[in-house]
Each structure stands twice: as structure tokens, then as C-alpha cells.
Amino acid sequence: MTNIAFIGLGNMGGPMAENLIKAGHALTVYDLNKEVVEKVVAAGAQSADSAVLALSNANIVISMLPNGAIVKSLFTGKNGLINHINDDVLVIDSSTIAADDARFVAQACKAKGISMIDAPVSGGTAAAQAGTLTFICGGEADDYAKAKPILEAMGKNIFHAGSSGAGQVAKICNNMLLAIHMIGTAEALNMGTRQGLDAGVLSEIMKASSGNNWSLQVYNPYPDVMPNVPSSNDYYGGFMVNLMSKDLGLAQELASKSHSPISLGSAAGQLYELHKYNGQGGKDFSSILQMLQES
Ligand code: NAD
Question: Which residue among 146, 171, 276, 283 is the active-site one?
């Protein structure tokens, strides 16, 4: 059993924390939103009144937060956690943030003798619930080895991508590809159904053909083709348009830094920005299909 402080219990962090409890770890949790805290407390966690108070007795600190500004402020801001964490504690940040932000926080931790790895995840809320996430880690090999058994309670595939920040680079490459194939899948389904095809039948055909991809397999954007996916729940409960838009902004930054052409990634970024500014930022990213249906 390991004592774990877990900060950020949203769509992803909540079920991840619950899987750690199921694996026998002792969790002290904190989130700004009391409602999500109550759910994880009902599953067996202790709650703390602040992130600093969640640290007491922790051997591991895990954060799962919306963006880099929040992660930086939590760890390195005024009265940041790095001023309170013991130097034998390992910090695992699973939020999706810029590689530079991850390196900044890891450096600040290192200056205090604290180890940190970036460990963003792929797989969505269903994988978070099932404990089958993919973790993509960046950091020292020893710290990765220490984190691995903990991550195995929440995930099925655990990768060491390289040094600090490498997990975030790999994660952003993946999410840019995800956005592109989700939009492509939505365009194909919209065009096919406008020609009178049934969305379920067309999906089965493409799944068994060369258009097969993850969006078709486990996250169909067309309502009621699949149970238990956001499109069958009015596009709520998954990976928000706001977050996908953030990730495509991070992809644009990485592309500029590395002089990499990302024509489709940039186009995907513009479509998600438009969808967000149409007031759809809180919906799941598969709702891009609705934007196509309305045009
Ligand atoms: P979410 O908005 O559902 O959850 C974030 C939680 O952080 C919220 O409960 C919020 O109250 C809490 N929070 C914000 N600021 C805080 C602070 N200062 N202290 C404590 N708690 C704070 O987001 P999510 O969908 O769980 O995503 C979390 C991260 O995981 C993001 O970086 C996202 O890009 C990434 N991610 C999400 C998915 C997905 O499918 N949802 C998949 C892979 C990666």
C-alpha cells in the first residue's frame, strides 16, 4: 500500500483515483469542486481542505488538471506545493500540458530535491473507468520505474517516452492525430447519412475496410450507434472540446518550434476553435459531427 495525494478529480482524475483505491492504496484527495470529491470519498478516499493538506503522509503526489497554467501555479506558484513536499516523494503529473511547462515544473521540483515525471494519458473516460489507460511518461528511468507499479493500477500500457517533457510531446502528437481522424470520421458519417445510408451500417463497413480507426472502433461520433459513448449521451461526459482545442494549440506550438508542417493538424485546430466559439466548448470533442450536420 502506498500513501497517495491525488489532486484533480474531474472526468479523468475521479475514476483514476477510484482505481487506485480498488488496488489497495490509501488516497487523500483534493479538488476545487466539492461534488467530485464526495464521489471519490464514497469510494474510500480521505478528503483534504487544501492541496497542501492532502500532502501529509504522501509518498506519491498525482495531479490530473486542466492545463499548464494551473499545474504551474499549483506546484510552483505562491505557496506552491514544492515548498511543502518532502524530497523522498515522487510527483506524477498526468495532465496534458506543454512539454516546456512540464520541464519547468520538473526543474523547480529538482531544485528542491523532489523527483517528478510527466505521465499524460490516452484512452478517454471509458479507459479511465476500466483502468486501461495508456500512460506516456517522460523523466528519469529510476523515477519511471518507481511510478510504473502505481500507474499499472490505472492503466494497461505504460510507456517511457524519454527524458522530462517527452511524455507530453508524444501525447500531443497522438492527440493531433486523434483530432484529425475524429473529424475525418465525422465528415464521412455526415456525408454517408446525407446520402441516405444508416450510420451504424456505414460504420461497420468502414470498420471492416481501410478507413478503420479508433474513433470508429470505440468512440463513434454518431448518436446511438454505440452505447456508453458521449455521442449517445448528448455529447456529455467525455473529452471536452475546450481541452481538445487546448491540445491542438499545444500541437501548433510544437510544430512551430520544430519547423514541422502540420496542415491537417492546423485545420483541425481551426475547426475545434470555431466549434468552441459557437458555445460548444463544454461538449465532448466528438460533437464536431453536430457542427458538420448544421452546416
Ligand atoms: P475536468 O475538467 O473534468 O477535470 C479537471 C478537474 O480539476 C476539475 O474537477 C477541477 O475542479 C479540478 N481543478 C481545476 N483547478 C484545480 C486546482 N487548482 N486545484 C484542484 N483541483 C482543480 O478535466 P478532465 O477531462 O478530467 O481532464 C484532465 C486532464 O486530462 C486534462 O489535462 C486533459 O487534457 C487530460 N485528458 C483528458 C481526457 C478525457 O477524455 N477527458 C483524456 C486524456 C487526457
Answer: 171
